[in-house]
């Protein structure tokens, strides 16, 4: 088995003196595999080792959730508490946001990463902290959805959870987690960052590639809760026992973190409280990945097999999630045939016609064209190079031929604002069917002008150049806007600009929506 896993690691490192990855596998409570390949530091040609410390990115979220679980067990809060009971500065939309809505990403709170992008934040020369994000969120006057209505992944939920831990416990989250979680578990090399200047022994540095040269990202940001943690393979293997050992002293944390709440419509979710609970080849997996500039991480467990896999890569060229599933496959293939047998459903060609057309992500300009080729439904994303073929799964659902974990479900009930759900292993993206403008507006000058948003505290300038509409704002110059639906524009950046007219048909403002996680940021025209 170890030789087979070694072959996966060898295939991931594209150059002998480049970044790489480190992997750990636990089976039946024993560490059965631990190895690495590539360099954790390119400056000094230092390879990964058994004590390499790496950043977790979004794998952090399950630990932030664990802190909430501990506080609930201590009787200091309840997941059903109104968030504004602890954070009264948050805008009240008329619907109560509960702590559980932050944990399972159904709060409707806008994602701060997208808000920063829309405000022209200069990541290369600026940094932000939890307080920066808190101040930004306290200025927001809108929501993406009613709390509990739908899953929308937002890092801001977990920045707010870190604030809740701080206010309820009376100590910063890094101190609380150290005292209540890491020390009791013996995770001596796991920590939330609290000072960018700290020396971290055996640190793996992240790298990204520009042409044939590796670059090291430099960050001035210190923001924890959604990310901001570091650990080692050994410590994460220790952590996996919380989920794999039902008699573990911290098993209540596992029950809390993996609990599947229900949406307002009664539908059970796949995202629990800091982890996804998704099926893979007949087994339930507990998993969460992480990604940041220059790094990728993955933590996944299958309790029924008493199996856990941890992968970290310090290169964007290495797919940590893909590596983890290839390792899982070795163990699953060596087992007696389980009951996994995905049902096949055959659509007739004329039945496929109901699904074809143009779809657009809600609160985004990302489009997807559905069409039939050789009696097979195909999906072509406006971001994708090639169309993907889809297999029929049921009368209204399909899965990618090359990746069955990606599912497409078409909705016929009009009480839903979406017509198509695309599910990437529990992370759901929502699409509506649209009719593209048959005759795009030739008089683009009526959209030009200066606009301002109070929520973002930023101005946008829209001009006309060579009969094209051009958007300029800080650190974003020369964005060419193209009309899709009438009065709705995009620049193929998962951002949508929907213009509003008054009763005299004059453009007065526009709403910006982006990446599916920010809805209706109002920009009003200031030079009418």
Automatic annotation (TrEMBL):
<dbReference type="InterPro" id="IPR012338">
    <property type="entry name" value="Beta-lactam/transpept-like"/>
</dbReference>
<feature type="domain" description="Beta-lactamase-related">
    <location>
        <begin position="19"/>
        <end position="319"/>
    </location>
</feature>
<dbReference type="Pfam" id="PF00144">
    <property type="entry name" value="Beta-lactamase"/>
</dbReference>
<dbReference type="InterPro" id="IPR001466">
    <property type="entry name" value="Beta-lactam-related"/>
</dbReference>
<dbReference type="InterPro" id="IPR050491">
    <property type="entry name" value="AmpC-like"/>
</dbReference>
<protein>
    <recommendedName>
        <fullName>Beta-lactamase-related domain-containing protein</fullName>
    </recommendedName>
</protein>
